[in-house]
Specification:
By secondary structure, the protein is of the alpha/beta class. It has 2 domains: 37-393, Alkaline Phosphatase, subunit A (3-Layer(aba) Sandwich); 400-501, 2-Layer Sandwich (Arylsulfatase, C-terminal domain), CATH 3.30.1120. Helices cover 25% and strands 20% of the residues. The strands form 4 sheets. Strands 1, 2, 5, 6, 7, 8, 9, 13, 14, 15 and 16 form an 11-stranded mixed β-sheet that branches. Strands 17-18-19-20 form a 4-stranded antiparallel β-sheet, with helices on one face. Helix 3 packs parallel to helix 9 and helix 5 packs parallel to helix 7 (274-301).
Length: 502
């Protein structure tokens, strides 16, 4: 059944005419309605390497994610999707369709403390509600204590990360439909899945949009007992430059590391060896994969599967030793590159693989377009529907990313007072085709340029080579063009790089 929407009764004469038309055009394929249900599955800190459908581009060879892989086989897999630099900006960018420098009304004083003004910082789910959708949000919230129930969401089951108790994954404090928070027993991935399945099984009179936000696989690696022994024999390679030094990099990167040598020199993070941390990280993903399987079953049983646009992505990736990181935040693919899978019968090519780099703001623009509404404000992303239909078509759009700590909007404009976050300075990058250009916002600092086709680990900085100076100039201009297109005030205050002053 089609989302169980009520169908208007027709008089007998109208039905006779309609049957006659069907007889004339019996070979016409029936496709999903113009306004699909929308299931946006959003994980936390999930690298593309955790999914077996990404083995061709670097996933760990031993990971197994059959349910999520099904989305790839029945839809389009994007080989490169960049989330924002860390959790809160990624969520704000997804809900507004704008980069961090273009989001007004957000005030953060620390990673977990802050608020936003809903009159200034508006989210597109409210626009979907006004256009006739029912909307729901289930899972992790990380944008201040106002989760938007009754404004953005008709139904909500919210865990505010600021309410961390215990181990993050068990017996969380949840607010359901705006009610006071209460402890809900159970493992969070399973709890969110059950609430999502219950929502799918409701009697829906309208098309619906569900934003399902798992807090997995965010650290700590609190694994469900059923997965505790999984991957126990898996081999995990150690990145060669986990401790540095790294030549031809900006000063902050040359010796940056969050790891310490442990037994036999194996890197440790907070006294945990890197290989076992990677195994635990992927065990968390297994619970997500089981949740996706249950959701697909519920959609199938309620006859909504082929009327539902399913998007699977994450707020960003996560590095495991690469460039010294045990984190996101860095401008490198190991830190930020997330999965993006889109299943949409009648639109997305089944089994399609898209090589063009895209970003989280493109996801927002695509969802709004799929819902059949005009963008309610100027969004920074690009509608990806052409790539869903033809994943290998030409695509000249530039993928832009930035790290401006917890500053938003006009707070990002000035040239001075750009504080680091745990040793990482502000940066910008653009990606087009095989090349990525990174600009650290520190005066007289070197730039970075990488050929990700030949050097996917971003080890060889081409910006330091004479034969790539023309391309370096080209990509500087691409970066400036993106800042102009998105009306960033910081364009007037960019510190000059070293290569521009010598």
């Amino acid at each position: 059944m089609r989302s169980r929407h009520r169908i208007r009764r027709l008089p007998p004469s109208a039905w006779i005419a309609l049957i006659a038309v069907w007889g004339l055009f019996s070979t016409v394929e029936v496709v999903a309605a113009d306004r699909p249900n929308i299931l946006l599955i959003y994980t936390d800190d999930q690298s593309f390497r955790t999914l077996s459908c990404y083995r061709d581009v670097g996933a760990w060879p031993w990971v197994k994610t059959p349910a999520i892989d099904r989305l790839a086989s029945e839809g389009v897999r994007f080989t490169t999707c960049y989330g924002a630099a860390w959790c809160t900006p990624s969520r704000a960018s997804l809900l507004t369709g704008r980069f961090q420098h273009g989001i007004q009304g957000v005030q953060l004083t620390a990673v977990l403390e802050g608020h936003y003004d809903p009159q200034v910082c508006r989210f597109w789910p409210a626009e979907l509600r006004r256009s006739g959708y029912s909307t729901a949000m289930i899972g992790k919230w990380h944008l201040g204590h106002d989760a938007g129930h009754g404004r953005d969401w008709d139904h909500s089951v919210v865990w505010d990360q600021a309410d961390i108790v215990g181990d993050w994954y068990n017996d969380q404090l949840l607010s359901i439909d705006g009610a006071p928070k209460r402890k809900v027993p159970g493992y969070s991935t399973d709890v969110y899945t059950q609430h999502a399945v219950d929502y799918v099984r409701r009697e829906h009179e309208k098309p619906w949009c569900l934003w399902l936000c798992y807090n997995a696989p965010h650290l700590p690696n609190t694994v469900h007992p059923r997965h505790r022994e999984q991957y126990s024999q898996a081999e995990v390679p150690i990145p060669a430059e986990v401790f540095g030094p790294r030549d031809n990099r900006p000063a902050w990167q040359r010796t940056y590391t969050q790891w310490k040598p442990g037994e036999s020199g194996v890197p440790q993070y907070r006294n945990n060896p890197l290989p076992e941390m990677v195994r635990g990280y992927n065990r968390l993903v297994s619970a997500v994969d089981e949740g996706v399987d249950q959701l697909l079953a519920a959609l199938t049983e309620t006859k909504q599967l082929d009327d539902t646009l399913i998007i699977f992505t994450s707020d960003q990736g996560f590095a495991w030793g690469e460039h010294g990181f045990a984190w996101k935040v860095g401008p490198y693919d190991a830190c930020l590159r997330a999965p993006l899978l889109v299943r949409w019968p009648g639109v997305a090519m089944a089994g399609g693989v898209c090589p063009h780099p895209v970003t989280i703001v493109d996801v927002a623009s695509t969802v709004v377009a799929a819902a059949g509404i005009e963008a309610p404000w100027k969004m920074h992303g690009h509608d990806l529907r052409p790539l869903l239909e033809q994943p290998n078509r030409g695509w000249s759009e530039t993928a832009f990313m930035e790290f401006t700590r917890w500053e938003f909007g006009e707070q990002t404009d000035g040239a001075q007072g750009r504080p680091e976050l745990r040793g990482v300075p502000w940066w910008l990058f653009v990606r087009q085709g095989r090349y990525k250009y990174i600009r650290t916002l520190v005066e007289d600092e070197i730039e970075e340029l990488y050929d990700l086709e030949q050097d996917p680990a971003e080890q060889v900085n081409l910006a330091m080579r004479d034969e790539h100076q023309a391309r370096l100039v080209e990509f500087r201009e691409l970066l400036l063009a993106e800042l102009r297109r998105t009306e960033s005030g910081m364009i007037e205050h960019l510190p000059p790089p070293r290569s521009a002053t010598n």
